[in-house]
From TrEMBL:
<keyword id="KW-0378">Hydrolase</keyword>
<dbReference type="InterPro" id="IPR006169">
    <property type="entry name" value="GTP1_OBG_dom"/>
</dbReference>
<feature type="domain" description="OBG-type G">
    <location>
        <begin position="166"/>
        <end position="332"/>
    </location>
</feature>
<feature type="binding site">
    <location>
        <begin position="285"/>
        <end position="288"/>
    </location>
    <ligand>
        <name>GTP</name>
    </ligand>
</feature>
<dbReference type="GO" id="GO:0005525">
    <property type="term" value="F:GTP binding"/>
</dbReference>
<dbReference type="Pfam" id="PF01926">
    <property type="entry name" value="MMR_HSR1"/>
</dbReference>
<dbReference type="GO" id="GO:0003924">
    <property type="term" value="F:GTPase activity"/>
</dbReference>
<feature type="region of interest" description="Disordered">
    <location>
        <begin position="11"/>
        <end position="42"/>
    </location>
</feature>
<dbReference type="GO" id="GO:0042254">
    <property type="term" value="P:ribosome biogenesis"/>
</dbReference>
<dbReference type="GO" id="GO:0000287">
    <property type="term" value="F:magnesium ion binding"/>
</dbReference>
<keyword id="KW-0547">Nucleotide-binding</keyword>
<keyword id="KW-0460">Magnesium</keyword>
<comment type="subunit">
    <text>Monomer.</text>
</comment>
<dbReference type="GO" id="GO:0005737">
    <property type="term" value="C:cytoplasm"/>
</dbReference>
<protein>
    <recommendedName>
        <fullName>GTPase Obg</fullName>
        <ecNumber>3.6.5.-</ecNumber>
    </recommendedName>
</protein>
<keyword id="KW-0963">Cytoplasm</keyword>
<dbReference type="InterPro" id="IPR031167">
    <property type="entry name" value="G_OBG"/>
</dbReference>
């Protein structure tokens, strides 16, 4: 998934003003009537319903708008340069070269101006003749051959960062069962395997339950040091920053579920303290792989540490309805 890109946007240059004079049968050169140049085109970013990643910008990095046309005779203004609209997915954050946030685009059709076109130059039609002469002598013509060049358009280097718009985020260490659970809760079909890092891109699915629809994101497994870029790194942590609820999965096969939970929570806090304010539902997964006694012991130990878990098996379906109810309840 392409979710972090740097691009260059350059607005159009303004057209130059015209040097022109009125003419007729009775006069070779009359008052100046040169028109202004057209303004350069602008560059916009606009949210498109057809995009879900920043893939269009993986290889092409430089974009520009059209230049304004030059002014003409009879005070005719040059045509404006053509604007350029760059489509981005919903959830795209736009920052300038200094890291200053320019826009957080979340709705289809929402747009932001990122580079403004240069102003067109003025033509000599702006010159005011104080004596109101209607005819200019040849030796004076150079005084009236004045015009302005068009201004350069703005040029800016941008960072585009995609943060998924999900209601619920599934988090946990690698191989804790996130992809399998997502496939059971929603219609999503993520790659599933019994080995770490099966998920290397975030997957999205929609859960429909009791008249509610919630978007759920399966974020790639976190490991110790993820907030500093280890493993799959912090590239995917950004995708859970918008969620209202986190479903924290820990495998029942783990020797120390509490330690697993602490590892993930530490990485969340290291990346952003705000993530620790998001409500979490703790889920003990893969309970079909252990016996009843071991399940009870692990659940009780977590309970003593203030962690109440919902035991589930994505394979048998046990506990899934209870988990759905809890997700609906906590996401209101």
């Amino acid at each position: 998934m392409v979710d972090y890109i740097k691009i260059n946007a350059k607005a159009g240059k303004g057209g130059k003003g015209s040097v022109s004079f009125q003419t007729s049968r009775s006069r070779k050169k009359g008052p100046p009537d040169g028109g202004d140049g057209g303004d350069g085109g602008n560059v916009y970013l606009e949210v498109s319903k057809d995009l879900s990643t920043l893939l269009p910008y993986r290889y092409k990095k430089n974009f520009s708008a059209g230049d304004g046309k030059n002014g003409g005779k009879n005070n005719r203004k040059g045509a404006m340069g053509e604007d350029t609209y760059l489509p981005v997915p919903a959830g795209c954050r736009v920052s300038d070269q200094k890291g200053t946030l320019m826009a957080d685009l979340t709705k289809v059709g929402e747009k932001v101006l990122v580079a403004k076109g240069g102003r067109g130059g003025r033509g000599n039609g702006h010159i005011k003749m104080s004596d109101q002469r209607s005819k200019i002598k040849d030796r004076e013509s150079s005084l009236w051959e004045w015009f302005e060049e068009g201004e350069k358009g703005q040029e800016i280097y941008l960072t585009l960062e995609l943060k998924l718009l999900a209601d619920v985020g599934l988090i946990g260490l690698p191989n804790s069962g996130k992809s399998t659970l997502l496939s059971k809760l929603t219609s999503a079909t993520p790659e599933i395997g019994n080995y770490p890092f099966t998920t290397i891109v975030p997957n999205l699915g929609v859960m429909t339950h009791k008249g509610r629809e919630l978007v759920i994101a399966d974020v790639p497994g976190l490991i110790e040091g993820a907030s500093q870029g280890k493993g799959l790194g912090d590239l995917f942590l950004r995708h859970i920053e918008r969620t209202k609820l986190l479903v924290h999965l820990v495998s029942a096969e783990s020797e120390n579920p509490k330690e697993n939970i602490d590892t993930v929570n530490y990485e969340l806090a290291a990346y952003s303290r705000n993530l620790m304010d998001v409500v979490q539902i703790y889920v003990l997964t893969k309970i079909d792989t252990i016996d009843e006694k071991e399940l009870k012991n692990k659940a009780n130990r977590l309970q003593k540490n203030g962690i109440k878990v919902i035991p589930i098996s994505s394979e048998t379906g046990e506990g899934l309805d209870k988990l759905k109810d809890e997700i609906i309840s906590k996401s209101k």
